[in-house]
Amino acid sequence: MTVTVIGGGLAGCEAAWALATRGVPVRLVEMKPIRRSPAHRTDELAELVCSNSLKAARIDSAAGLLKEEMRRFGSVCMAAADESRVDAGGALAVDRDRFSAAVSRRIHEHPLIEVEHREVTAIPEGPVIVASGPLTSDALAEDIARLCGDGLHFYDAAAPIVTAASVDPATSFRASRYDNESSGAGDYINCPLNKAEYEAFHAALVSAETAPLHDFDVAAPEVYEGCMPIEVLAKRGADSIRFGPMKPVGLRDPRTGHRPWAVLQLRAENAEGTLYNLVGFQTNLKFGEQKRVFGMIPALANAEFVRYGVMHRNTFLRSPELLTSGFRFRDRKDLWFAGQMTGVEGYMESASSGMLAGINCARALTGREELVLPRTSMMGALSAYVAAPNVNFQPMGANFGILPPLETPIRDKRERYAALAARGLADLEKVIDKP
């Protein structure tokens, strides 16, 4: 029996891969290039629309643990990420075009996956996995709403990208925080500001003109903290961004020998190192305002912007009322949801939900019970969070706070995280469903 997977993002590709590698034929339906959302710019599958960072790489970090768990399940996205990696200190960042191309190649080459390019306007008969993402087209979103009731929605933002050649080398320097071997010294271009420069920049930022939002008729849209526009964060106080995205901790300006007052870091966007994104500078400022205000940072005075920051709508389900921890729809046994629309936040969190939905769909087709992962694993904790009763449900990314505490407390944070990661991987190996 062929399974229909709606959406060719990370979650949809992982769902299709999980099914196909378990011998289940898949029809993967992606609306690009027939129709695109405002945030998409290429026709490839698994397009990264915001940052090119997949967060920390270390296994003793929450994001790193999640990615290692996905590797052990045979993740198609992790294989592509490892293939397209760019230098980013302790983070796993990728050349986004090479990443998408690597995922697309694997999907198109698999003999059990058929890719169709068309818009889906209603959920078809099952078995089906809906992984259409937070930018689901209006017609399909309306059909999902009829099935599920009102969803949760707020806005998400992306950061600008500049050319490396246009960043002033005389007023910037290369370094990773603390410049040690584990962080990969020199992976970031750092754009320092002194106290006067920072204060002038902050004043301009909080008074800059923002772009109108057309997705909803709202005066003050709710924004997820993890993707807070830099101008919104700046309005929380004079030092809010200096202790946030522009914190200078662990950096020393070689020109002065001292720590700057504030720093904007630029992270490589592609393997060639010709493009860099402004880390933490997701924004909804008008394009002209972005060039004017961000140009007040000395190193970006003549920056060439190849992509300006944008803000777009994200839509989420009331998953605790609707989904099991295996991402199966409670009231329709041949339907699963996956990706960010289920309330997991982040690229790999979304991908992991698609993987688990695909695995459980395959198990259901062969009469096997739903795979419930141990709460001590990051994938298990995230899927449990999505399904647990919660009247104040909000999207959640990978973090150690959602794992059960260790039986024997460990005071040192690094040692505690390492112990949590080791426990989670050991418990996962006991139940892991490999193709």
Structural summary, described in words:
This protein is an alpha/beta fold and 435 residues long. The chain has two domains: 3-151 and 317-429, FAD/NAD(P)-binding domain; 161-312, Beta Barrel (Elongation Factor Tu (Ef-tu), domain 3), CATH 2.40.30. It contains twelve helices and 16 strands. α1 (10-20) packs parallel to α10 and α2 packs parallel to α12 (413-429). The relative contact order is 0.18. The model is unreliable at 180-184 and 215-221 (pLDDT under 50).
Q: Strand tally, please? A: 16
Major β-sheet, in short?
6 strands, antiparallel
The strand order across the widest sheet is 10-11-12-13-9-14
Do you know the CATH topology of the largest domain? FAD/NAD(P)-binding domain
Beta-strand content: 15-25%
Helix share bin: 25-40%
Shape: globular
Model regions low in confidence, pLDDT < 50 over at least 5 residues: 180-184, 215-221
Task: Assign the CATH superfamily of the largest domain.
Answer: FAD/NAD(P)-binding domain
Between the first and last Cα atoms, what is the distance in angstroms? 18 Å
CATH architecture of the largest domain: 3-Layer(bba) Sandwich
Spatial extent as radius of gyration: 22 Å
Q: Report the average pLDDT across residues.
A: 89
Class computed from helices, strands and strand pairing = alpha/beta
In brief, what are we looking at here?
30% of the residues lie in helices and 15% in strands. By secondary structure, it is α/β, with parallel strands linked by helices. A 6-stranded antiparallel beta sheet has the order 10-11-12-13-9-14. A 5-stranded parallel beta sheet has the order 6-2-1-7-16, covered by helices on one side. A 3-stranded antiparallel beta sheet has the order 3-5-4.
